[in-house]
């Protein structure tokens, strides 16, 4: 039995860069239209530009770098692709101070110490200790962090590897990724170099709280994920909250779209639109009113200054503005 213990660990994504078409197109959509259909059937409404860059990423085996405001669906594209293609999703939620050791591997020191104690207590300890040194740094004691885990063969095909919110990390980690994105291999001093037999499908995201270095962006296909227009947000809301009445869905989307034109600290994303719609469903709301909006603002706004600004007559003003764009019911 393996001595490895399961621990809570971050997950990371990277990718081998290849200039040619993916040799293994197993289960991958063969056209842009097929990508759109695949995503739509999985509940993700993508515009033509996003569907195109996803198709090219899959076709060419290139990492996909998605940038945009929080809540516009960057992370969701990786989850949707993994579910639609039947691939494993491996994810890293980036944070300040993340380093290579947290992303690649570490040794299970607790299990190693137990093995050492057992060897010292054994009746044949000298002979056992001779083999112990090699065993302590074997696969049984290796804890694979996401980058190393992504290099393991998978009968279902290459996994989807997600680096989420890369802009939260620092430049040393970006520099480490440059090597990983070039070769998709890592060296473990005790075991040697490990290379992925099949490079994974890689998606990186950034909320643009800082600029990611050009050298890393050049290794990826790039797409800016913007807030959707009214029609596409209606499509998304219909797919994600199908129980909401049509007129109420229209009012919700129009109100959120109007909010995005206001001078707020943080504008609501698509995720907040869906959350708000589900809250209204849970409350059996059939019609928006300033009172309902005031009671549920926490679903769409996440800063107290923004919430305070929309209390009272301001919410009614924006609601009236939103309804004016819709016309009569």
Strand order of the largest sheet: 2-5-8-1-9
Instruction: Work out the helicity level.
Output: 40-55%
Averaged pLDDT, please?
86
Largest sheet: 5 strands, parallel
Order of helices and strands: HHEHEHEHHEHEHEEEHEHHHHHH
The number of strands is: 9
- What's the shape? elongated
Please give the count of helices: 15
Low-confidence stretches: 1-24
The proportion of residues in beta strands is 5-15%
Whole-Å distance between the termini?
A: 66 Å
Alpha-beta classification:
alpha/beta
User: Rg to the nearest angstrom?
Assistant: 24 Å
Could you describe the 3D structure shown?
- The protein is an alpha/beta fold and 329 residues long.
- The protein is 46% helix and 12% strand.
- A five-stranded parallel beta sheet has the order 2-5-8-1-9, covered by helices on one side. The chain has a two-stranded antiparallel ribbon with strand order 3-4.
- It is elongated and about 80 Å long.
- The termini are far apart.
């Amino acid at each position: 039995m393996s001595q490895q213990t399961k621990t809570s660990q971050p997950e990371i994504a990277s990718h081998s860069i290849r200039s040619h078409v993916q040799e293994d197109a197993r289960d991958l959509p063969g056209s842009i239209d097929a990508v759109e259909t695949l995503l739509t059937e999985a509940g993700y409404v993508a515009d033509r530009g996003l569907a195109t860059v996803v198709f090219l990423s899959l076709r060419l085996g290139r990492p996909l770098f998605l940038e945009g405001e929080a809540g516009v669906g960057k992370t969701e594209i990786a989850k949707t692709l993994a579910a639609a293609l039947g691939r494993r999703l491996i994810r890293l939620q980036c944070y300040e101070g993340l380093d290579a050791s947290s992303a690649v591997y570490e040794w299970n020191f607790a299990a190693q110490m137990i093995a050492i104690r057992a060897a010292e207590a054994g009746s044949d300890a000298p002979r056992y200790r001779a083999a112990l040194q090699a065993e302590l740094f074997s696969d049984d004691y290796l804890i694979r962090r996401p980058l190393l885990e992504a290099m393991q063969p998978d009968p279902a095909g290459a996994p989807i590897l997600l680096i989420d919110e890369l802009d939260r990390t620092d430049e040393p980690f970006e520099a480490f990724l440059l090597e990983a994105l070039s070769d998709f291999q890592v060296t473990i001093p005790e075991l040697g170099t490990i290379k992925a037999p099949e490079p994974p499908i890689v998606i990186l995201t950034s909320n643009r709280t800082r600029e990611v270095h050009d050298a890393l962006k050049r290794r990826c296909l790039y797409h800016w994920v913007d807030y959707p227009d009214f029609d596409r947000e209606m499509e998304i809301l219909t797919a994600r909250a199908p129980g909401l009445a049509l007129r109420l869905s229209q009012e919700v989307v129009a109100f959120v779209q109007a909010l995005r034109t206001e001078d707020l600290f943080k504008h609501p994303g698509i995720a907040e639109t869906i959350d708000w719609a589900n809250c209204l469903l849970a409350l059996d709301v059939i019609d928006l009113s300033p009172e309902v909006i005031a009671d549920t603002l926490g679903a769409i706004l996440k800063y107290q200054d923004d919430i305070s600004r929309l209390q009272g007559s301001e919410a009614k003003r924006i609601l009236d503005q939103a309804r004016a764009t819709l016309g009569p019911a």
